[in-house]
Amino acid sequence: MDTVDKANMREFLRSFYGTSVDHWQMNEGVFDLLVRMLQTSGRCSDLMDLVPRPMKPGQTAAKWLSKEIRSQLLRNIHKRREYYRVCLERAAINLRTDFELAGRGLAY
User: pLDDT digits over 38-50, tens only?
Assistant: First the structure.
């Protein structure tokens, strides 16, 4: 991993763990956890795509349902390039101890 990769990884993790990331070593263990975090978030985001959006006041149920089905299909067609923030945050919370250990060069 070069210095640019390490800096990008540190910047991304800082948005979840704050300045404590500045003291972590950006190593392969941290990278592996980051991949795990994104995979977990991807599954969560896929499920969030299935949640129907709210029906607007005055909109007929049939029109709303057909729009939701169409929108859901279109969301699923696109490859996962975006993640729901809530999914990333939950994965970050679940992996915090592992990240802290890996960032200190300890096994996770």
Answer: 999 988 988 887 7
